[in-house]
Write a structure and sequence with these properties.
Length: 275
C-alpha cells in the first residue's frame, strides 16, 4: 500500500518537474526580468543602500507608506530592521539547498547543469523580487501589531480568489512538515550519528525544542536569532567555499571549461533546473 502511494507521488512529481514546473518557472523568470526592467541588476545600488542606510533610500513609485516595514500599535513602533529581514531570508538560502541541490543537479545533468543553476539563480532574482513585493503590498496588519502576508494574501486580496489562497495556505502547511524541515533535520541527525554516534531521536528532540523556543516569540524572535547566527553561518559558508577553491585551484579553469562546453544539452538544462 505504502509503496503504491509512493510510486504515484513519484510519477506525478516526475511529470510535473519534467514538463510543467520547469517551463512555468522559466517563463515567469523571463517575464518578471523584462517587466521589472532587469531588477537584479538595476537595483543593486539601492539594495546595498537599503541594507546599510534604510533611512536614506528614496520611496518607490508604489509608495513608502505602503511598503514600510514599520507598524504603529498603541503609539509604539513595532518593526524588524532591513538587516534583520535580510538575515531571515538568508537563513533559508544557506544550507541543504545549496549543497544537496547542486549535487542533485550534477548527478542528473552532469557538470553543465552548474551553468544552468547560475542562470536560474540570476533570472530567479526577479521572481523572488516580485514575490516579496506582492507579499508586502497585500499584507495585513493585525490589532496587536503583527504583519500577516504571503502568496495566500496576494491571491485573496490581489486576485480576489479567497478559495485559491486558502488552498495554497493548506498545501503550504502540509508541505512544511515534509520538505525543508525533514530534509534538514535528517541531514543533521545523520551527520551527528555517523560522526559522533548521537542517536537521531536525541537530535530530533533537541532541534524541535530549540525551534519551538525561537518561533514562539514570533517573527521578531526569529529575526533576533538570525541576526546573531546568520552572519557567522555565512562567513563559515563563504570561508569553506574559498578554502575548497584554494586547495583545488588547479582544477578551477578546467572545471569552468567543462561546465560551459557541457551546458548546452537538454540533460544539463534539466539537471540545472531540478537542482
Amino acid at each position: 500500500m505504502i509503496d503504491s502511494i509512493q510510486n504515484i507521488f513519484v510519477q506525478v512529481s516526475d511529470f510535473l518537474w519534467s514538463y510543467i514546473i520547469i517551463a512555468v518557472l522559466i517563463c515567469c523568470a523571463v517575464f518578471f526580468t523584462w517587466r521589472t526592467r532587469f531588477v537584479q541588476f538595476r537595483l543593486i545600488r539601492e539594495m546595498v543602500r537599503l541594507l546599510l542606510h534604510p533611512d536614506k533610500v528614496q520611496p518607490d513609485e508604489i509608495g513608502q507608506d505602503e511598503l514600510s516595514m514599520d507598524v504603529k500599535v498603541d503609539g509604539e513602533m513595532k518593526h524588524i530592521s532591513s538587516f534583520q529581514a535580510f538575515v531571515v531570508a538568508l537563513a533559508s538560502r544557506i544550507g541543504t539547498g545549496n549543497l544537496a541541490g547542486v549535487a542533485t543537479a550534477i548527478s542528473v545533468g552532469g557538470p553543465g547543469a552548474v551553468f544552468w543553476c547560475w542562470m536560474t539563480g540570476v533570472l530567479g532574482i526577479s521572481t523572488k523580487y516580485a514575490e516579496g513585493l506582492l507579499a508586502i503590498k497585500y499584507r495585513v496588519h493585525t490589532s496587536d501589531g503583527k504583519m500577516l502576508g504571503g502568496p495566500m494574501y496576494a491571491l485573496e486580496r490581489g486576485l480576489g480568489c479567497r478559495w485559491l489562497g486558502l488552498t495554497f495556505a493548506f498545501c503550504t502547511v502540509v508541505a512544511s512538515f515534509f520538505i525543508g524541515n525533514m530534509i534538514q533535520c535528517n541531514s543533521i541527525s545523520m551527520m551527528l550519528n555517523e560522526g559522533y554516534h548521537i542517536p537521531p531521536l536525541a537530535t530530533g528532540i533537541t532541534i524541535a525544542l530549540t525551534t519551538c523556543a525561537v518561533i514562539m516569540f514570533g517573527v521578531k524572535g526569529i529575526a533576533k536569532v538570525c541576526e546573531g547566527l546568520v552572519p557567522f553561518m555565512a562567513l563559515f559558508y563563504i570561508g569553506g567555499c574559498l578554502w575548497i577553491l584554494g586547495v583545488n585551484h588547479s582544477f578551477i579553469w578546467p572545471a569552468l571549461k567543462v561546465i560551459v562546453t557541457d551546458a548546452f544539452n537538454p540533460q544539463a538544462a534539466t539537471g540545472g533546473f531540478v537542482g
